[in-house]
Design goal:
- This protein has 468 residues and is an alpha/beta fold.
- The protein is built from 16 helices and 17 strands.
- The strands form three sheets. A seven-stranded mixed sheet has the order 1-2-3-4-5-6-7.
- Helix 11 links the parallel strand 13 and strand 14.
- The longest helix is centred in the first third of the chain and has 42 residues, at 2-43.
- The chain is elongated.
- Bound molecules: zinc ion.
- Residues 288-289, 339, 343, 379 line the site of zinc ion.
- Zinc ion binds at residues 288-289, 339, 343, 379.
Amino acid sequence: MKQDGQIKRRPWIEFALISTIITLAVVIIFFISMNGNFKFQKTTTTASATDHVKESVSITDSEFPDIRIVTERNSGTNMTYNISYPKTTFDNVNQEITQYITTSKDIYQSELKNSEMAKGDLHIEVALAQYQSELYSITLKNNITIDDRAHNTSIQTYLFNKTTGEFISTKELLNDNELYLNILAKYVKSQLLANNNYSNYLYSEKLIEKTAPQWENFNRVAMNEDTFTFYFNKGEIADPIAGLPTITIPVSFMNPILAETYQNGETINTNILTPYDINTKRVALTFDDGPHPTVTPQILNLLDKYNAKATFFMLGQRVQNSPDIAKDVWNRGHEVGNHTWGHPVLTRIGDQQILEEFNSTSNIIHETIGQYPSVFRPPYGAINDHVTSMLNLPVIMWSIDTLDWKHRNANQLLTYVQYGMHNNAIILMHDIHQSTADGLESVLAYLQQQGYQFVTVSDILLIEQLNQ
Ligand code: ZN
């Protein structure tokens, strides 16, 4: 019975064993193929017999605990890319960023196809910073090269609250204030015009359009604890040869036009970025031919005493001789102007010489104070349309001449001011004569008592524009 039973059962056992083996084999093959498939998708694909395409995605930490960096690479084709972008803890932020990355890839592919060129590369790099320990500032720099030649460079920025993920616009930073926007627009434009890296390459109509006081013109902004940087895309306002026009402004200068919650650290009340009370009377004191090693510091102390801002039209050679004083003028919130290198009569010299006088002075001012001059005054007031057309700064004359260089009499300074005084006056003085420093306090005291606010010449220009 036992044998019979064994014999009777054998086919069933064999069937069960074979089924198990087949099932196992199928499962194993399935897993092997799955695994292979998975690997295949993740790290390699084969586009053709000759190309060996490599795609990879990696995620690394950033300097901030709640932001990671995603890097996507694709090499080995004629359409390579190397893209880095942040992954935050907020879905809305991540969504915006991945949408931008997808669009960038699409644009890259279509531009490469349109160009019928052999080979392209898309490079997107990310820069992160925080502001007031409360906002994250993300900057994506998008660079396309075609056949190893730079094709297009653009900037995308994001600003969002670290706790809520809420995006912050420039409009919110400036408290939705149109006057603040006007002040910012005017300043950014003047800095672009004054910057020798861009000024010769600017497209004048595009510059006017893209620095017009409209919020969308100033939405590409990056911040860190010390500075605001406003970006323009390559080719947007200047010849691509000029690169990526950027204007960086210290936070201490931005504070007067920021909404209270976004003000950060000390405020330097440079009037260049200070809002105005339209009903106040104003006067612009200007000092030419310095900086002087002993007279200029006395004038700076008097201006501080009266909380007055002024404009100093400097000679390049004097800036070279007294760089610390030039720097002090700027650091104390005054405006710095170009007054040529060696004080020639510009209407009597050649074009080449005019440009040398002008550019060498702008350059040494930039080297010394870190900013280009924002205004120009011709020596002796000698100017004509031809000279004006060669220079890329507003040309500033004066409405009251104190003749301080002629009489050298401290007591007469006030007399000349009183005689010609009017609202929005621009007063000409020289910070190289001891008599001017000696007579200045009575001028400051008188004008203050008359209700005048002491502003820079750019302020006067801006106010005139705003009043038009
Ligand atoms: Zn002069």
